[in-house]
Specification:
Length: 434
């Protein structure tokens, strides 16, 4: 007879069965159900979830239209490798995506995760340019697979014991206006970053040997750092001058997170290649490397492939996501609720000296904590205390930044005014208790 276990019993297995990254993370809530903006745990508690599965459930947990689309497809068939067959959800999704992508992004290589989409973008860039060099930015996070870990510099621990990583990868400073050594303004931060790229060209690799510049339009794990408005246009200009491909990693910023479908649209820049994932299917595993037909069609059969990418259930869910974003006017809600939330965070910044900066775009928001009276010395201890204080009061947020000094907020795009105000009240109480 099969033995029955309750959640409390199975929790004790975590350290024996799961890798430490899973078993020793924070806060390890024993979730048993989720709906909308809320998580429910085995001990009967409810949490306002301002992580959205790290920018995945952009429509909130369990959106009924997404679930219905997935359920309908599941009853037809759940998998057949693309190439062995073609299925309708895949083709309909590709067509629907062309209507919301930046201009010219019209051909897709589907995969399952953000790291895979980034790997595909780098492979495509090297394949079509026949150049080796890749330029990325300090503080970036692009994934943890071997190639993606090469491009990730948000923390050294993500690279520990994996060297040597991929060759011909070069690192420029990201224009962080809060921590720019030249001065805390957009002009100095932009100068700092662009001079770093020029130094790479002068001392390390000639621009005609560079295949691509890979960039997050807003840094994610690195601290929710928003660059100056002129930064992406400046990268576009550099790439145009030297025949370099501009790859924009929209894994975390995509599908409405910043108030437009993609952050590159906020900055008015057309990439050559994009990596998209996370919010695309509201929790079902799906991602894509995206480029123009002229570029992608050079990637010949056998040069890249996948077994699970473009799964029919995930594609059906993604089609529903696009419909919901449009029909429920979620981009506008993101902009309005994002402004309300950021205005509230800035009021808290004036009230509590431990907050060095409040920043973000849309509903991709953060506060960076410092030691008051010690310049901008990162204060990861205070950030952890605030996160725990929020958790005790029913709000789930998450850390970011090199020393965990950033508290980031990733509410669903469906978040209400009442939920934003509740989160701000909880934050106020948590800061007051420091």
């Amino acid at each position: 007879m099969k033995k029955e276990y309750n959640f409390k019993d199975t929790q004790t297995w975590a350290n024996q069965l799961l890798m430490p990254s899973f078993a020793q993370d924070w806060p390890l809530l024993p979730a048993v159900r989720a709906e909308g903006a809320y998580l429910y745990t085995a001990d009967g508690k409810r949490y306002l979830d301002f992580t959205s599965g790290i920018a995945v459930t952009n429509l909130g947990h369990g959106h009924p239209r997404v679930l219905a689309a997935a359920r309908e497809q599941m009853e037809k068939f759940s998998h057949s490798a693309v190439g062995i067959t073609l299925h309708e959800p895949l083709l309909k999704l590709a067509q629907a995506l062309t209507e919301v992508m930046p201009e010219g992004m019209e051909m897709f290589s589907f995969s399952n995760s953000g790291a895979e989409a980034v790997e595909g973008a780098i492979k495509l860039a090297r394949y079509v340019t026949k150049r080796p060099g890749i330029i990325v930015f300090e503080g970036s996070f692009h994934g943890r697979t071997f190639g993606a870990a090469t491009f990730t510099t948000s923390k050294a621990k993500y690279r520990k014991h994996y060297e040597p990583l991929l060759p011909a990868v070069y690192y420029a400073p990201f224009p962080d206006t809060f921590r720019c050594p030249l001065g805390s303004n957009e002009e100095m931060a932009l100068k700092w970053s662009l001079e770093g790229i020029q130094t790479i060209f002068d001392r390390l690799i000639l621009p005609e040997e560079v295949a691509a510049i890979l960039v997050e339009p807003v840094q994610g794990e690195g601290g929710y750092v928003v660059p100056p408005a002129q930064f992406l246009p400046a990268l576009r200009k550099i790439c145009n001058e030297h025949g370099i491909l501009l790859i924009i990693d929209e894994v975390q910023t995509g599908f409405g997170r910043t108030g437009e479908m993609f952050a590159s649209q906020v900055f008015g820049v057309r990439p050559d290649i994009m990596a998209i994932a996370k919010g695309i299917a509201n929790g079902f595993p799906l991602s894509a490397t995206v480029a123009s037909r002229a570029l992608m069609s050079q990637w010949l059969p056998g040069a890249h492939g996948t077994t699970f990418g473009g799964n029919p259930i995930a594609c059906a869910a993604a089609l529903a996501v696009l419909d919901v974003i449009k029909e429920e006017n979620l981009l506008e809600n993101c902009r309005q609720m994002g402004k309300r939330f950021l205005d509230g965070l800035k009021r808290l910044q004036k009230k509590y000296p431990v907050i060095g900066e409040a920043r973000g775009l849309g509903l991709m928001l953060a506060v960076e904590l410092v030691h008051p009276g010690q310049g901008k010395l990162p204060n990861g201890e205070a950030a952890m205390a605030v996160l725990n204080g929020c958790l005790e009061r029913g709000l789930l947020a998450y850390m970011a930044g090199l020393q965990g000094q950033v508290v980031r907020f990733i509410p669903p795009l469906t978040v209400s005014q009442a939920q934003v105000d509740e989160a701000l009240e909880i934050l106020d109480a948590s800061f007051a208790s420091l």
